[in-house]
Design goal:
The complex is a heterotrimer of chains A (154), B (786) and C (266). By secondary structure, chain A is α+β, with helices and mostly antiparallel strands. Chain A has helices at residues 22-29, 85-92, 102-115, 121-127, 139-153, and strands at residues 2-7, 10-15, 48-51, 54-57, 70-72. Chain A contains 5 helices and 5 strands. In chain A, strands 2-1-5-3-4 form a 5-stranded mixed β-sheet, covered by helices on one side. The longest helix of chain A is centred in the last third of the chain and has 15 residues, at 139-153. Chain A is globular, with a radius of gyration of 15 Å. The N and C termini of chain B lie far apart (66 Å). With 266 residues, chain C is of the alpha+beta class. Chain C is globular, with a radius of gyration of 18 Å. Helix content of chain C is 31%, strand content 27%. In chain C, 58% of the residues are buried. The chains are: A alpha+beta (154), B alpha+beta (786), C alpha+beta (266). Chains in contact: A-B, A-C, B-C.
């Protein structure tokens, strides 16, 4: 089936098998390997991207369902060498260790901050309930997202 | 020159991870690469009656299908540690085949590998392999595995024991002391099985190059050189110099990526058979079934006290499950990494631990963050708190009474334990004192009393832990059964322009070595951090290495680098002396240059580096070049310690535990990068809290796993945890050049009993004195009803 | 993880979806948000030959106020329900319910119609749909019909939908006072117990999910209710209570009473 998807501002058209997930499409066909597969069944959030502006788990969306949509992946967050404020805050506050859950965390943070420009600690923690991190204990991820909010608001 | 040691330098590795440019194994694509899928047993214990691969072989896109009949890896994957029976009988060591041949011994054991042009087609074809099984009764509980008539995991032996083992004082002496003790506290529980759950599933690509007759194995491992050694010398019997093992970015390990897994060896073998690269990436279901698990000890323990609350004796019997086969370090975990910590931070005069380690029809159990030490700490910190509860003592008072007095390992000697080790340095009073200040202990007890009157259930729990890490002195571990040395390798290559490439055998999978190692290398050489690059993870770049586990990277790997730096500076001084026309003894090195003492005559590190590679005017007899490699074999383990304190509130209606505060005061020796140490502690605490409250792998009686996905295995989430309040004291390690002890496991070791002690404290007035982990709402509620 | 092969058809109208469903029968599955179906297909527990995607059908993702009711298109996502001003003002209990489902990513994709049709015994909406006396509007080859919430759930993953029918919308009466309380299963975050309470004049309507293999109206509680929470004792009267690794029968029964009590007291 033929699909056209705009990813990080660039339109792509491909013939894909219906059973291919959007994660698989991004990683294997577009070579955007920043979107990771942690569980592949919508549990862990490593595959989170934004689709038409909303954070979604790309492992549980068929590539064919994404036809006509606009997608942003972690690769589309920085402006050249200048990191997005969320990315910059993760670096500043050590919000990542092994880096595997990080793209999903950053893309979920986009959604959290879009809906709430100044979240409390509790709101950030609640917003991250669909993302697992095994390294950080979430402490510095929460800190990073709250500081990103401050940066964006200032 | 800016100094970096002790500063929270931001991580260099972050830029690539934050931009989605990390290079994890599954991100790699090679030309002509094929994809593999496994056919795995749906039974825990079964006879394989027949395997029919014909339909799969003819399916669309299939390149090859292999079963055990195809002669893959006749040796199987090896075990790296030998623990013999107490009576001298050799450890029972079954072959661990790459593919099951006649018999299935755990759920998910692989029967066949299907290799196809794409992952989709490999998965499709794998479903066409027909295996006839005859299901057999299974045993998954380590204690039941030792009962008469238990189903045998390996029929060549009369029972399921792989070995038994003991440590400490004479058992009879300990029994006698217990019999005459003023009070004896008893504890029986299961330290439950855990699934490590690194977020990146295991992933391998094997690539055989027929023209070069060489293999490259890309693997998500914590120790590429060790994998190469085990793969070549044991599993496949292929020449080590023909194999390159590469482990770029790895998405967390926590122990589970130390071991040499069957899939690594099988892919390597099969790649030569088909003459093409093969990739396999575990899915999460396979990870639950096939990644080595942690813990699984069934414990019965008694601790005797005198009437002041001083411990007089401690006796423990444990059944420690090993799973169906012996994983790489499995025998060490419930023995030398466990029993040797039974002294804790206390002056207990008599200690005895007896371990029976059976095979069970489950996936292998091996090291998981802390490896044997969390199990020891959990027992000690629970039983001493239970003792205090029974004797109506404050849990901090009983600890203070029993603490080993402070010793720095320099002025005062190390502390000789009853269980073989000698602690390096410690000040256990100081971390407890600081922890209590951070908590505001007296105020908390008031708050707790008031809350209780209103029907609210608040509790506080303590854990004053010690751990042994920085593994390890090779001669010591060799005497204890290790089949490898546990030194580390560090090479420092100064380039002609004075830029420095450092090659370490340690491996970073989240720890930040690229940053931390560069910090101390820059300081020691007096050069900018930007002039230092840290390389790891490729056996063709790095001379050798033992990898990263046991909180050893900085203590052992860092020390190896320091040794090479010393050699660089020693040789550099000879070149500098020649250039400055001065005696070596008259030079001093600081701020990146050699200066003739008392003069302004100096030569820079860069000049000396260039001269070393352009030796036109050069000391006679001195070799050109400035490049040294060192092996560092530590003289002792390191012993970080600390105090962890949890504050919880239990919902009286539901039994749900809310972790309200977590206070950690740790002492990991000298600290290179406080930001990274804090991060390690926070992450470790989350894992320890996960064990206390949420996580458990459950097999049913038949050996089926009922917690094989994130729908049933409860991972700690952001809203399960509070911010971690952390601080530290610094008691340097006296025996390594950086004075560091290691921080990777401390959080996971100290935290678990603190949480359980807190919940028991919250419910103590209801008569609760013990709870089985994980403290699920159901278990807590039921305990409150009794 | 990759599903078995299937044909994918994107339906452009309800009529088309219904006729495709009629044509393919048991071999077909309706795809809406996909958050129950796709994982099951990836694990190859479900192997439809045809997947009919109703996600793009125009008009099915609208929330409208119709007199004393609110009509929610089957394709409305949980997040849409959570953010809807109309629902906040008129059926706030549904907003409370949606807020407890999954996580933000799941709520951005999962739909109310998909959740109801899937009929997971631990899903959240059923309790609220029951307590509100909502009606499920469905369409099949013989046209449209409505099913009362109390007639809709028949068992585990089983509903009153005919093989050729899809849910097109759910109609909720406006609810002034109601609340949803849930005890989370710690791994999946589904409901071990979910209780929806709607106060209706002097009476009360109580929907319970997670406790039995079919969500139910706690009629014994409703009958016993006389203004205080003592009626919560009857939360599982006559109910076959489920038992699993996280909550056995005794504990689950206890939780049902606790959460009905909390609902009645809120």
């Amino acid at each position: 089936m033929k699909i056209t998807v705009k990813v990080n501002g660039v339109a792509h058209t491909h013939e894909v098998e219906p059973r291919i997930s959007l994660t698989h499409y991004l990683r294997e066909i577009l070579d955007l390997t920043g979107t990771h597969i942690g569980c592949d069944t919508s549990g862990c959030g490593a595959c989170t991207i934004t689709m038409d502006g909303k954070a979604v788990k790309s492992c549980t969306i068929l590539a064919v369902q994404a036809d006509g949509s606009e997608i942003t992946t972690i690769e589309g967050m920085a402006n050249g060498n200048e990191m997005h404020p969320i990315q910059a805050a993760f670096k500043e506050h050590h919000g990542l260790q092994c880096g595997f859950c990080t793209p999903g965390m950053v893309m979920t943070a986009v959604d959290i901050l879009k809906n709430n420009s100044n979240p409390t600690e509790e709101e950030v923690r609640h917003g991250l309930e669909g993302n697992f991190c095994r390294c950080t204990g979430y402490h510095n991820i929460v800190k990073s997202i709250r500081h990103a909010a401050e940066q964006i608001n200032s | 020159m800016e100094k970096f040691i002790g500063k929270s330098v931001k991580r260099r590795e972050d830029a690539r991870f934050l931009k989605g440019a990390g290079k994890y194994t599954d991100d790699i694509k090679l030309p002509k690469m094929t994809q593999a899928a496994f056919v795995r047993s749906p039974y825990a214990h079964a006879k394989i009656l027949s395997v029919d691969t014909s339909e799969a072989e003819n399916a669309e896109g299939v390149v090859a299908v292999f079963t055990a009949q195809d002669g893959c890896g006749e040796y199987g994957v090896p075990c790296g540690w030998q623990v013999d029976f107490k009576n001298g009988e050799t450890m029972r060591e079954p072959q661990h085949p790459l593919l099951a041949k006649d018999k299935i011994r755990h759920l998910g054991e692989a029967v066949a590998i299907v290799i196809a042009e794409s992952l989709e087609l490999a998965r499709d074809a794998a479903e066409l392999v027909e295996v006839d099984y005859e299901e057999l009764p299974a045993v998954t509980d380590p204690k039941k595995a030792m009962e008469d008539g238990a189903p045998l995991v390996h029929e060549q032996w009369a029972d399921n024991a792989a070995f038994d083992w003991c440590i400490g004082n004479d058992r009879a002496e300990v029994e006698t002391a217990l019999a005459s003790a003023y009070h004896v506290t008893e504890l029986e529980y299961r330290n439950q099985r855990l699934a490590p759950n690194a977020m990146e599933p295991r992933s391998y690509i094997a690539d055989y190059d027929v023209n070069a007759d060489k293999w490259t194995l890309y693997t998500s491992t914590q120790n590429p050189h060790l994998i190469r050694l085990l793969l070549c010398a044991f599993a496949l019997g292929i020449p080590e110099h023909k194999v390159r093992v590469v482990s770029y970015d790895v998405g967390g390990g926590f122990g589970s990526k130390i071991y040499h897994y069957t899939e690594e060896a099988l892919l390597t073998w099969a790649s030569k058979e088909i003459g093409r690269p093969i990739k396999w990436t575990s899915d999460r279901s396979e990870a639950f079934l096939t990644d080595a698990h942690g813990r699984d000890h069934v414990v019965h323990s008694r601790m005797g006290f005198d009437k002041e609350g001083k411990i007089v004796a401690h006796l423990t019997d444990e059944y420690c499950g090993l799973g169906a086969y012996l994983s790489t370090f499995a025998p060490a975990v419930p023995t030398y990494l466990h029993g040797t910590l039974f002294q804790g931070v206390y002056t207990t005069p008599l200690i005895h631990l007896n371990v029976t380690a059976p095979f069970t029809h489950t996936v292998a159990v091996d090291a998981y963050r802390g490896a044997g030490r969390p199990e020891a700490t959990y027992l000690l910190e629970r039983i001493i708190s239970k003792g205090a509860q029974e004797m109506n003592m404050d849990p901090t008072e009983i600890r203070l009474k029993n603490f080993i007095p402070p010793f720095d390992g320099v002025e005062q000697p190390g502390y000789q334990t009853q269980v073989a080790l000698q602690y390096d340095s410690g000040n256990y009073h100081a971390v407890l004192k600081r922890g209590l200040e951070m908590l505001g202990y007296e105020d908390f007890r008031k708050e707790q009393k008031e809350a209780r009157e209103k029907g609210r259930l608040l509790g506080v729990g303590f854990s004053t832990y010690i751990e042994g890490c920085g593994i390890a002195p090779s001669a010591v571990v060799g005497a204890l059964g290790a089949r490898a040395g546990l030194y580390e390798v560090g090479q420092v290559r100064v380039q002609p322009t004075g830029k420095v490439s450092v090659y370490t055998g340690a491996h970073s999978h989240g720890q930040g070595h690229e940053t931390v190692f560069a910090q101390f290398v820059a300081d020691k050489l007096g050069i900018p951090m930007d002039d230092v690059e840290i390389e790891h993870g490729d056996t063709e770049q790095v001379a050798f290495g033992m990898g990263t586990y046991g909180s050893r990277s900085l203590a052992v790997g860092g020390s190896a680098i320091v040794k090479s730096i010393e050699k660089i500076l020693e040789k550099g001084a000879k070149i500098a002396a020649h250039k400055l026309e001065a005696a070596e003894g008259d030079l001093e090195y600081a701020e990146g240059k050699w200066t003739v003492k008392g003069t302004d005559k100096s030569v820079s590190f860069g000049d000396v580096s260039l001269t070393a590679y352009v030796p036109h005017d050069y000391p006679e007899g001195l070799e050109p070049g400035l490049d040294f490699s060192s092996f560092y074999d530590p003289s002792n383990f390191t012993y970080p310690f600390g105090t962890h304190i949890a504050v919880v509130e239990v919902d009286p209606d539901t039994g749900k535990v809310d972790l309200k505060r977590f206070v950690a005061c740790d002492d990991v020796g000298n600290v290179m990068n406080p930001m990274i140490v804090d991060g390690q502690i926070q992450g470790g605490v989350a894992q320890g809290v996960g064990q206390a409250l949420l996580e458990e792998v459950v097999y049913d009686e038949g050996g089926q796993m009922i917690t094989g996905s994130y729908m049933d295995y409860a991972m700690p989430r952001a809203d399960d945890l509070p911010m971690i309040e952390s601080d530290r004291t610094v008691t340097p390690c006296p025996h390594n050049p950086l004075g560091v002890k290691g921080a990777g496991e401390a959080g996971a070791i100290g935290s678990t009993p603190a949480v359980v002690n807190a919940v028991v404290d919250a419910l103590a007035h209801l008569g609760v004195s013990d709870l089985q982990m994980p403290l699920t709402p159901q278990r807590v509620w039921k305990a409150m009803q009794n | 993880m990759i599903p078995s092969k299937f044909n994918y058809i994107k339906a452009t109208s309800v009529n088309e979806a219904v006729s495709l469903l009629d044509e393919h029968g048991f071999d077909a599955k309706i795809l809406s948000g996909g958050h129950s179906l796709i994982p099951a297909m990836k694990l190859r527990l479900n192997r439809p030959e045809v997947v009919i995607d109703i996600g793009g059908i125009p008009g099915m993702d609208v929330i409208t106020e119709e007199g004393d009711a609110v009509v929610i298109g089957a394709n409305c996502t949980h997040q849409q329900i959570l953010n809807s001003e109309i629902i906040y003002k008129n059926v706030n209990i549904l907003k409370q319910t949606a807020a407890t489902i999954g996580d933000v990513q799941v709520r951005n994709k999962g739909t109310i119609g998909g959740s109801l049709a899937h009929a997971d015994p631990s899903a959240d909406y059923p309790a609220t749909v029951l307590a509100c006396d909502a009606t499920i509007i469905v369409e099949g080859k013989n046209g449209s019909r409505t099913i009362a919430a109390t007639d809709f759930f028949l068992g585990i993953f089983t509903t009153a939908l005919e093989d050729d029918e899809i849910i097109t919308a759910v109609r909720f009466p406006k609810i002034a006072h109601g609340n949803y309380h849930k005890f989370y299963q710690s791994a999946s975050r589904f409901a071990v117990v979910g209780v929806a309470v709607v106060f209706d004049g002097s009476g009360v309507k109580v929907g319970v999910t997670g406790v039995a293999d079919t969500p139910y109206r706690a009629t014994k509680v409703e009958e016993a209710y006389n203004g205080d929470s003592s009626a919560a004792e009857h939360a599982v009267d006559g109910v076959a209570v489920m038992s699993d690794h996280f909550a056995d029968e005794a504990y689950r029964s206890h939780l049902a009473k606790v959460f009905v009590k909390r609902g009645l007291e809120a």
